[in-house]
Amino acid sequence: MKISIVGTGYVGLVSGTCFAETGITVTCVDVDRKKIEGLNNGVTPIYEPGLDVMIQKNVEKKRLFFTTDLKESMDECEAVFIAVGTPPDDDGSADLKYVLSVAKEIGQYMTDYLVVVTKSTVPIGTSEKVRAAVKEELKKRNADIPFDVASNPEFLKEGDAIKDFLRPDRIVVGADSEKAQKVMQRLYKAFVLNGHPIIFMDIPSSELTKYTANSMLATRISFMNEIANLCEIVGADINSVRKGIGSDSRIGNKFLYAGVGYGGSCFPKDVKALIKTADENGYSLEILKSVEQVNDKQKSVLFNKIVKHFNGNLKGKTVALWGLSFKPNTDDMREAPSLVMIHKLLEEGVHVKAYDPVATEEAKRRIGDKIVYAKDIYETLIDADALIIMTEWSEFRVPNYKVMEKLMKNKVIFDGRNIYDPSEISEYGFEYYGIGRN
User: Fold this and answer.
1) 2-200 falls under which CATH superfamily?
2) Which 3 state secondary structure label does DSSP give 155?
């Protein structure tokens, strides 16, 4: 079986590599020549644990190819996946220009039956726009070539994407023809041997499922952050509350951790897009609007604790900041809470020394030389007035407190991810501030 995937961003590259891992011949297409040249020379443009090794293996096995030529990649293809970006417009709606541009090219180059699959996260109605764009190009060619459109949203967690793809909880496919369903069923046959299903549904429901899933998870995060803020006021501990409610089988313990807010490429964008979709259809999603407002506010909660601790006198202070990516095991800094923290600290005249295991180059691209980048966690602590934890990387969890107290000028820790035990911290003479902890 042969397929093409257009877009070598996070979704396209992971999807294409994992499909190739099962023996499918995959060609990944991108307009970015530099990126394609890099991939053909063994350079992986994103950080995802295990991805570079899997790419190399499947390239050597001649199951995975990279090109800038969509027309060439479509020869004998049974399905073409559209996995290009859908960046938010200023009003929060998803920008579909890249998706529809690919759809037009498919219509220009296809020569035989295809299933055109939207893999990008797209609002309801996009698949019909894709169908119309393909039809329009076929009409211009006077070509009567049959095709189907399908929607196949991704549910990958950055940092754990390969496992998620190879052993999915479920695969959601929106399709309106039996022929398209059969193609998708054959394509995903190797991925459902663990007993988890392919869930076929109508295309609009499929498109809405991805937005709904991410918005539900974002809601849980904002809800717990609200409860964490209340915990501080009434003297409760959010970790105890989390354990108490997480043991309820109706609730479960996933996404119940309080912190400095969610970020990344999915949650912020998808919440905004779903709100916009509802507004355009005359309905206001009040809960999701509150989720977004709470998250925006939460990104400043830790900074406010810092201001209060130093009585508003931050100018000239030096802080160590651990973690730049929005979550562990990725170099993604899109909508990262660290960016908000750094911006606020710099505005107050604070000197920032930061360390992240993999996101340093991305931070340099976004922030430049406004902060100092350290080679390890301890270098950031030299003469620091405070330590701020922004990302819960594993290597931050059990530091050498004796070394820390010798290096730091002022022993205070602002833990934005609640990774430390306050009682253990106090034994070494550190002042501790967490989220929702008394």
Assistant:
1) NAD(P)-binding Rossmann-like Domain (3.40.50.720)
2) coil
